[in-house]
């Protein structure tokens, strides 16, 4: 009860301090806000879902070409990269762009817009319900693998953590692809191009001069952060992980800090849709955005040189609805993400010939790497009892007072506009470390030299992060007591898997198999990471906030007492996705060795077809993947505009 009153008093105090409220306006303002919401609908963005307006219906008795259905570039997938690409390309009024997105608007969904809400979308029609193949090294479990089906793609459902990887990652990309334009010294300009960093008085050490200041993607510190997550950073310093003011700063990404987020100053999620498909962009005559439009195949003709040329795409609202075709005068770009882009290539006849033939698909181009080299970051969660019984457990209310607290949170967020608990993104603080750092893992306790899978000497291979409370099954299951959680994941796993066709039917989701922890190296590094998390939990000031006397078996207060063999069993039981699959259409120099696109992101062996999304990462980045997806799209848009203007 005291907490509830405190919550309400605090709302009122903050609102008064900020001049949001007078006593009378408290009542009348709330009533007015609700009335306005009920009476006026928000202006609808200009998206088309009637596909008659964007393509020619297949099967109609006409062969005539119609300019109405011709575009210069067709982008397949309005996700993180796709929206950015469509927006930047259509800045040139001479490029007619069609963006086709399988889902609807993410911006229209309250659970996407509100930072805390995304878990509520996981088991809905707005998310593709993937399950992995049984994971042989993880007790045979089939893992839930959400991929967004909406504009903004996974940027509309992600945890909003804005860390972009290590500079060395991109130098490694450049040397593998044989193209310096991907090296950090060149490519970094696209990270600053997409971002608008909002300085915060509590974080004066962030060097704003090296951050983007005028891009469409707002990043900053507008999400809420718990005291335990602040204490986590201090405890990291206590175990010799240096504090860093900025994971994306000039000193690279190693260290511990609060993490920046893709949350704007109104405490709303920043997605690729909200950042790039603004009303001004959508008003462009040369940009058409169609929603509920699933592309079922890429259309090819044979070019004059006898090489297959992508000339358009086929798409439909659903399996049972009519199909449509649109032509791309210049090119088709796949931005369907790390699972769907290879899937679309495969069902269109580009991929390993034997696999295509087995499924009865005509081979347009035998390209062995399509769908191969799948890599994802495997995560292990650790759960602790919150000693102060202060967590936001009431978000899943179980009692009358929980309901009151939840109502208070809703009022803070939706009516007073002051953020509060609903502005929480889960991942609050983090640490990026190397598993061979002798200051963190002294050789007398960790004598074994493990394989170095990092991209450079100053790149990490482990990330730890904290969340305000613990959960299981991707947020479906909360604990019955107040909790806090730590997590560790492998940034540079050596286990890889594949995306494979289940059939030639474009509506049947492909098989995904990340092959989690199938190498000894991966297991050994995760054991180190788990040990480190458990040590941090026992280190002040975090230790004082956790109830280490609470030794219930489903919590981890005694896990540090276990042997490596016992920890390995825990890891195999608990390992999950941290939702970062990449590399299934790998950029690289050699199509015979599994590369799918060249350094210009053109698909090998065909003309007029590129891929632009997380699938092209030659190696997974040492961190969170959305930033690189934005940057790739920014770079490709610049490159294409330059190509066209010089042609
Ligand atoms: C739950 C979750 C949490 C995450 N947390 C973070 C985080 O905190 N920070 C971070 O940096 N990264 C995070 N990530 C990862 C990051 O969001 C993704 O790596 C990134 O957004 C992928 O971008 P993309 O452009 O490759 O694909 P996506 O953004 O997935 O876009 C693909 C789009 O293509 C559409 N599409 C697919 N098939 C078709 C088709 N046939 N026809 C038409 N459209 C199609 C999809 O509907 C989707 O909109 C998270 C991801 C998830 C799922």
UniProtKB/TrEMBL annotation:
<comment type="similarity">
    <text>Belongs to the GMC oxidoreductase family.</text>
</comment>
<comment type="subunit">
    <text>Monomer.</text>
</comment>
<dbReference type="GO" id="GO:0033718">
    <property type="term" value="F:pyranose dehydrogenase (acceptor) activity"/>
</dbReference>
<feature type="active site" description="Proton donor">
    <location>
        <position position="580"/>
    </location>
</feature>
<keyword id="KW-0285">Flavoprotein</keyword>
<dbReference type="InterPro" id="IPR000172">
    <property type="entry name" value="GMC_OxRdtase_N"/>
</dbReference>
<protein>
    <recommendedName>
        <fullName>pyranose dehydrogenase (acceptor)</fullName>
        <ecNumber>1.1.99.29</ecNumber>
    </recommendedName>
</protein>
<feature type="active site" description="Proton acceptor">
    <location>
        <position position="624"/>
    </location>
</feature>
<keyword id="KW-0964">Secreted</keyword>
<dbReference type="GO" id="GO:0005576">
    <property type="term" value="C:extracellular region"/>
</dbReference>
<feature type="binding site">
    <location>
        <position position="295"/>
    </location>
    <ligand>
        <name>FAD</name>
    </ligand>
</feature>
<dbReference type="InterPro" id="IPR036188">
    <property type="entry name" value="FAD/NAD-bd_sf"/>
</dbReference>
<keyword id="KW-0274">FAD</keyword>
<dbReference type="GO" id="GO:0050660">
    <property type="term" value="F:flavin adenine dinucleotide binding"/>
</dbReference>
<feature type="binding site">
    <location>
        <begin position="80"/>
        <end position="81"/>
    </location>
    <ligand>
        <name>FAD</name>
    </ligand>
</feature>
<dbReference type="InterPro" id="IPR007867">
    <property type="entry name" value="GMC_OxRtase_C"/>
</dbReference>
<dbReference type="InterPro" id="IPR012132">
    <property type="entry name" value="GMC_OxRdtase"/>
</dbReference>
<dbReference type="Pfam" id="PF05199">
    <property type="entry name" value="GMC_oxred_C"/>
</dbReference>
<feature type="domain" description="Glucose-methanol-choline oxidoreductase N-terminal">
    <location>
        <begin position="337"/>
        <end position="351"/>
    </location>
</feature>
<comment type="function">
    <text>Catalyzes the single-oxidation or sequential double oxidation reaction of carbohydrates primarily at carbon-2 and/or carbon-3 with the concomitant reduction of the flavin. Accepts only a narrow range of electron acceptors such as substituted benzoquinones and complexed metal ions and reacts extremely slowly with O(2) as acceptor.</text>
</comment>
<dbReference type="Pfam" id="PF00732">
    <property type="entry name" value="GMC_oxred_N"/>
</dbReference>
